[in-house]
Request: fold
Amino acid sequence: MAERLRELTTTYFKVWNSHDQAGIEALHSEKSTLKDWNAEHGPTRADVAKGIAGIWKDVPTIKIEIVDLFTSVTNTCVASIRVIVDAATTLKVTDVIEYDDAGLVVRLDAYVAQPKPKVLFVLGGPGAGKGTQCAKIVEEFSDWAHISAGDCLRAERQDPNSKDGELIEQIIKEGKIVPVAITVKLLQKAMVASKKSCFLIDGFPRNLDNVTGWKENVGELGAQVCGVLYYEAKEDELEKRLLSRGETSGRSDDNIDSIRKRFKTYISETMPIIDEYKAKNLVYTVDGMPPADEVWKVTQGIVRQVEAMPPM
Reply:
């Protein structure tokens, strides 16, 4: 059964690529339907063939490549395919093909896979200019959203209707660390709400446990991590910036003792993350010492480079 379904499906796509309307009609049962990403064709095989011929006419360069085939105990084959529209556009599609006992297609449902969101983790010492650069990216590039892990946690804590908010409040009061699964869940919630396709995740991951939590809860199927946007700056310069900011920010942690403690924590917990992603050639290092406008020129180039990455 499994081998027969594979042969039938391989033949089907071979004929499909030949753009043979009569040939494709002959592979469908008399009462057959095809649901593709544009329309529903049926309820006869002539309707199906006409609909497919319409696709060939609209997109004459279209071609299908089989990635993998999965069969079931019923007369159904699930085909993971690449639909090559043209030199610049390839769609990932899943076709669910149901056959009758004679080996003819009764129904074919096509589902276009949505591209995975692209993610850049934004890291750097306190005062390195991450927030300034993220704001510029969002202003300049319309597909990007800036999501702060800290802001997500604060917003959830302040939501009176959130069970997670109550739990977060209790955990923080007890001086414990919020479980990474909750933080990742809130990041994903913010990503969906933004309706964007590219994300700057700021303030996360903070340690290697966060990296593991992201992999376990999001993984490669949930997002394409394009790397780490890392703003590098010297400790003495960061101290100057934060002390200057503290004069107007009203933040209680913008004082010399807190600044040095934060920097020490950053070095001990965040640098191992940089090292891990460097080993994969996924760190984009930016010198955060020059004026913001100069740093922005480098940042722009990196964002364009990430946008140009092919989907995975």
